[in-house]
C-alpha cells in the first residue's frame, strides 16, 4: 500500500496503508469516517463522507497506544533533491505562480514567474524560475515599493533561502 506517516506527541512513525474501504461511509464521531474526512480534505467533525482507511505503523513503540491523538499523512507522491521555498513565498499574479526575489546588491525585490511542483504543506517545489540560494520574500504583497528600505521591510524578516530539499512528499490533508 501507499506509505504513510503517523505523528503523535511530536514523533513521526513510518506506516503503510493496509486497507482501503470499497465504498464511502458517513463520517461519525465514533468511527474512522471523521478521521478519513479530514485526511481527504473534508470539513471533519463527522459532518461529511469519507472512505475508511486502515494504516499500520511499521515500528510502533510505547509512545503509541489506544486512545492517543495522532495525525496521519498518506504520501501520494514524492521527489528527491529538488529546490523548495516556503509555501507562503509563492503568490499568484494573473493566475500564474510567482515569487518575489530579493537582490542584496541592489536592495530591491523583483517578481519572478515560477513553475511549481509538489508541496508537503510548508514548502513547495520550484521546477523552474529560481536557483539555489536565491532569496525570496515571504510576506511581500508586490504592491508596496520594491525597494526594501522604502517598504520598511527588514531583510531578515522578508527573505528565505531557496533550499535544495532532500525530499518533498505530497500528502493528503492530515487529521
List the helices and strands and how they pair.
Layout: E1 3-8, E2 11-26, H1 32-39, E3 49-57, E4 71-86, E5 91-93, E6 96-103, E7 108-113, E8 115-119, E9 123-128, E10 135-137, H2 148-151, H3 155-158, E11 159-161, E12 163-171
Antiparallel strand pairs: 1-2, 1-4, 2-3, 4-9, 4-12, 5-6, 6-7, 6-10, 8-9, 10-11
Description:
The chain has three helices and twelve strands. Helix content is 9%, strand content 51%. Strands 1, 2, 3, 4, 8, 9 and 12 form a seven-stranded antiparallel β-sheet that branches. The longest helix is centred in the N-terminal third of the chain and has 8 residues, at 32-39. It is elongated. It has helices at 32-39, 148-151, 155-158; strands at residues 3-8, 11-26, 49-57, 71-86, 91-93, 96-103, 108-113, 115-119, 123-128, 135-137, 159-161, 163-171. With 175 residues, the protein is mainly beta. The two termini are 19 Å apart.
User: Assembly type of the shown chains?
Assistant: single chain
Fraction in helix? under 10%
The share of residues in extended strands comes to over 45%
Shape: elongated
Round the mean pLDDT to the nearest integer and report it: 74
Low-confidence stretches: 28-47, 150-159
- Please give the radius of gyration in angstroms: 20 Å
H/E order of the elements? EEHEEEEEEEEHHEE
Number of helices: 3
Main sheet makeup = 7 strands, antiparallel
Distance between the termini: 19 Å
Q: Which structural class do the helices and strands define?
A: mainly beta
Amino acid at each position: 500500500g501507499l506509505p504513510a506517516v503517523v505523528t503523535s506527541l511530536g514523533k513521526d512513525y513510518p506506516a503503510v496503508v493496509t486497507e482501503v474501504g470499497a465504498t464511502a461511509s458517513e463520517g461519525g464521531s465514533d468511527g474512522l469516517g471523521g478521521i478519513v474526512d479530514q485526511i481527504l480534505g473534508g470539513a471533519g467533525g463527522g459532518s461529511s463522507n469519507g472512505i475508511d482507511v486502515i494504516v499500520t505503523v511499521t515500528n510502533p513503540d510505547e509512545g503509541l497506544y489506544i486512545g492517543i491523538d495522532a495525525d496521519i499523512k498518506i504520501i501520494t507522491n514524492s521527489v528527491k533533491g529538488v529546490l523548495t521555498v516556503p509555501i507562503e513565498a509563492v503568490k499568484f499574479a494573473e493566475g500564474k505562480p510567482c515569487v518575489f526575489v530579493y537582490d542584496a546588491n541592489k536592495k530591491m525585490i523583483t517578481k519572478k514567474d515560477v513553475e511549481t511542483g509538489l508541496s508537503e504543506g510548508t514548502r513547495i517545489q520550484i521546477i523552474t524560475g529560481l536557483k539555489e540560494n536565491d532569496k525570496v520574500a515571504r510576506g511581500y504583497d508586490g504592491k508596496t515599493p520594491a525597494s526594501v528600505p522604502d517598504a520598511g521591510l527588514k531583510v531578515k524578516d522578508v527573505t528565505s533561502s531557496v533550499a535544495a530539499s532532500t525530499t518533498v512528499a505530497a500528502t493528503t490533508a492530515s487529521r
